[in-house]
Amino acid sequence: MNIDRAGRGWTGIRMTIAALDLGRRRIGVAVTDAASMGAHPVGIVERRALKKDVAAIAAMLRDRRVSTIVVGLPLNMDGSEGPAALSARKFAASIADVLGVAVEMFDERLTSFEARERLADMPARKGARKAGLDALAAVVILEGWMQAHPEKIPRGSG
User: What is d(CA 20, CA 26) in angstroms, rounded to the nearest whole number?
Assistant: First the structure.
């Protein structure tokens, strides 16, 4: 799914790709680095209500020249879509409307598992680890999307 509304929102040259991992309590946020070669966590947004969540993400990304936002699509293990996937699609449409950027959905199955594996060796308090897990899951989503769509990664300076 590609919800393309680019041009209606932020101005200027856009070079960054962001990713969102939508959890029940938190939304993990990650972005590409300046050269669009890798991804790193930006932080988390504590879930409140749709409009507040979207506004918090907009504030977090406003100065990052985002051209595309990749939203994790929580498919069932058999590839079907359930209520969580429908909720993610609704959230993606809201992000596209508010930010005026292209939004793409990306299969996020097993991203939380991979993020947990990556965090296993990192020293952290339990609370910090849980918060870090959400942001790291967004990194995993972004890395997967970048591997699947190298032709969509903006290159060059802006």
Answer: 10
**Residue 4 neighbours by CB under 8 Å, 6+ apart:** 96, 102, 103
Query: What are 22-68's pLDDT values in tens digits?
Result: 999 999 999 998 777 789 999 999 999 999 999 999 999 988 889 99
Instruction: With beta carbons less than 8 A apart as the criterion, state whether 60 and 68 touch.
Output: no
Q: Which of 136, 83, 131, 143 is nearest to 113 (CA)?
A: 136
N-to-C CA span, the chain: 27
Contacts of residues 46-54 at CB distance under 8 Å and 24 or more positions apart, as own/partner, are: 47/23, 50/90, 50/91, 50/94, 51/94, 53/27, 53/91, 54/91, 54/94, 54/95, 54/98
Task: Let me know: does 21 contact 138? Beta carbons within 8 Å.
Answer: yes
Coil, helix or strand for 97?
A: helix
On the 0-12 / 13-18 / 19+ scale of CB atoms within 10 A, 75 is: middle
Regarding beta strands 2-3 and 26-32, do their DSSP bridges make them parallel or antiparallel, or are they unpaired? unpaired
pTM value? 0.81
